Amino acid sequence: MKAFIDNVSQTSYVSAIVARKRLLFGVSLVFLILIAISLTETEDPNWTHGSGRFSHMTAHNGTLGNSTFPFGSGGPMRMGAGYQRPGYERPLANGLPLRIMAIGASTTRGDEGFDNNGFRRPVRDYLTSIGNPVNFVGPHRVGNMTDNDIEAWPGARTEVMHHRAEHSLPFMKPNLVLANLGSNDCFQNFDIPNFYKRYYQFVEYVLEASPRATLIMGTLLPTTETKRFNAGARVVEVNKQLRRLYKIFQKEKRPVVLAEMMGPDGIHPENLGPDLMHPNDAGYEMMGRIIVQAIIEADAKGFLRPAEPVYGILQDGNLERQDDAYKAWAEAKRLEGGGHERRRRGRGRGYGDRAQEIHGSNPGA
């Protein structure tokens, strides 16, 4: 009987059946392994832009390609729509209108640039080109672009801009804040070891005063100036603190994204203007590109949310400029609603003298 079974098992028909079962078993095993891998994938593997303009953003392995800052291990805080985009030509957050406040000092203002628009113009041009309405907001108008509102004071340190934000941010309620703070702390050599405390308090205030806001925190630009301020080493130290703070914000699940201005794809000394502190025109374009990358990351994490309605603030900043009659009506409504604007203006006039005493005529960044 054993010999008979051995002879049967060696026939071509039986051998084919056994081989087919082995093949099916191997295919099933590979299929199960692929399913297990797909279930553990947490980031979009298609974040690398084909043209290379945004090639440093690769979320496939949970890192920023030219950075050392991991995404939060506990997963992002889902605050807005957030979705996986197949490319960079589609609007963010399903075309969400973005009310943007740029906060900082002279680099935020675009000083030393030919048009004083700085990074705001390339940021606005990109966002509107993909279908997101944009309105920059702030108490000042700087630059030759139509939508040129801003909150920026040349020479102002971090705590000064925190104080300025208290007089504008609660009344304008941006849903996106672009912050570039700390350069003047370095130029004025002001308490560098404790910079992180001042910046953390600033971020806490922004997210409290405008609860729907996402904050893009920029690291500082390099400086090669040595005759007046010689702040290169202090900039390096402050940037280390900013990167550590960003890791803390990630662990706290805050809607904050880092815009890394240094590194291989960042600003280099050749991108600085004649004063060796502010960017030149190409440098401002690069800043805008880096900030756009950070905004796209914020969308992918689901951070972007609709701005709170505010009288007189439209979705389109250019249209807002054209509708003077509506703005006059909105101003009257604002004054009827409790006189917030009168109080804000009163505090602003009193603060102007104090701000001049604090940072004087330092040119700062």
TrEMBL record:
Superkingdom of this protein's organism: Eukaryota
Region Disordered, annotated ranges: 335-365
Presence of keyword Transmembrane helix: yes
Keywords: Membrane, Transmembrane, Transmembrane helix
InterPro entries: Ester_Hydrolysis_Enzymes, SGNH_hydro, SGNH_hydro_sf
Pfam families named among the record's database cross-references: Lipase_GDSL_2
Stored Gene3D superfamilies: SGNH hydrolase (3.40.50.1110)
SGNH hydrolase-type esterase domain sequence ranges: 141-285
Segments traversing the membrane: 23-40
The protein's name: Carbohydrate esterase family 3 protein
Organism in which the protein naturally occurs: Apiospora aurea
